[in-house]
Amino acid sequence: MVLQRFSWPYGGRHASFCGSFTGWREYPMALVGTEFQVVFDLPPGVYQYRFLVDGVWRCDESKPIMRDEYGLISNEVLVENNAQQVVQPEPSPIRGINMDEGTILTTMPPEPSSQNPGMQIAVFRHRISGILLHNTIYDVVPLSSKLAILDSQLPVKQAFKIMHDEGLALVPLWDDHQGTITGMLTASDFVLMLRKLQRNIRALGNEELEMHPISAWKEAKLQFYGGPDGAAMQRRPLIHVKDSDNLVDVALTIIRNEISSVPIFKSLPDSSGMPLLNLATLQGILKFLFSKLQEQAEGYSLLHNQLLNIPIGTWSPHTGRTSNRLLRTLRLSSPLNSCLDLLLQDRVSSIPIVDDNGSLRDVYSLSDIMALAKNDVYARIELEQVTVQNALDVQYQVQGRRQCHTCLQTSTLLEVLEELCIPGVRRVVVIEQSTRFVEGIISLRDIFTFLLG
What we know:
The protein has about 450 residues and is an alpha+beta fold. The chain has helices spanning about 115-135, 155-165, 185-200, 215-225, 245-255, 280-295, 335-345, 390-400, 415-420, 445-450; strands at about 1-10, 15-20, 25-30, 30, 35-40, 45-55, 55-60, 65, 75-80, 95-100, 105, 150, 170-175, 180-185, 240, 260-265, 275-280, 315, 330, 350-355, 360-365, 405, 425-430, 440-445. Helices cover about 25% and strands about 25% of the residues.
């Protein structure tokens, strides 16, 4: 922790202080000699603050100033842990400020390129958090969109066919008895169902799928995939967010629960009886954030940094970069079961598929398993005998060849964010340009883990 003194030396009868670290709650300032002062014990970081002097909000022109997307201005300070009293950066030339209106009357200069990387990242994260905290998930939800909901009493076979035909990797489940959304049916459910079907064909034969309801499958899954002591899995409450939740909380809910999307419930129920408003995804939040960043891209110098200078993503050990996850790759000849094992055990959504030289050939995603639902292909194959190549061939027959979204270590953060805003793109594979050797992968989850650091 670092003792940080804030002062207002420009007169007044009464002065209060508030900052991002106080939750913008006001604290009275003491008059010491000819200036008002207040001291806080703060952890290192970048903070914003303002003064309330005789009932008027003011900023100190001699200290660094920033403006948010709404035009509100604040002073900004970097608290470092290498000194008891933080030395303020050299003041920039005085800018004309109308204190009463709280707006900057001249254009803010871009961040200096000489800023050290640690501070550059801290400032960037601080400003990103400001944007996400001041907007709710309701700001991201499209005004009109198509949302599929399945009845929990629908037969399993019919449900997965609908998901395949509609191109859905997950869908909310409606329980008519409870009168609400009670769960989600996902591609992971389809994988687990296939394994149960093929491991214990008598327990859940293909013919039974015609009548077996989703709700019964969900209960059977809790029993079949229980712990090693034979105890059944415990059903966890449905994870959801409210339309009034800010974007930081929604993104953290998705990341911490390792899910791809989360249902948005209405804060205030209406007469329709349907609490579900839509589904929130990291890509939806990123597209909203990216539109905000584009408005002032020149003011965010970190956006123009290359990936090799930013601690983000999952990397191959040969690159010398560390990451929280181990980069997994598989070959075309690998058994599909091995691929599914890694996807479920590592709780990742995709694995790069490479040739014998480690060069990228494709990416197999958990949602690709839904291709086996077309014409009941899953009922005519043995999972143990299917290779990744076989599974991809089925995928190509259903949807045709597809593009692998890639980048280089020399690509900028801005270029990667732009790629991840493309509908349906959830990760970008980092390759070596000449050989297409897989060096890393950057997912939507990696982006938000970095941004919310």
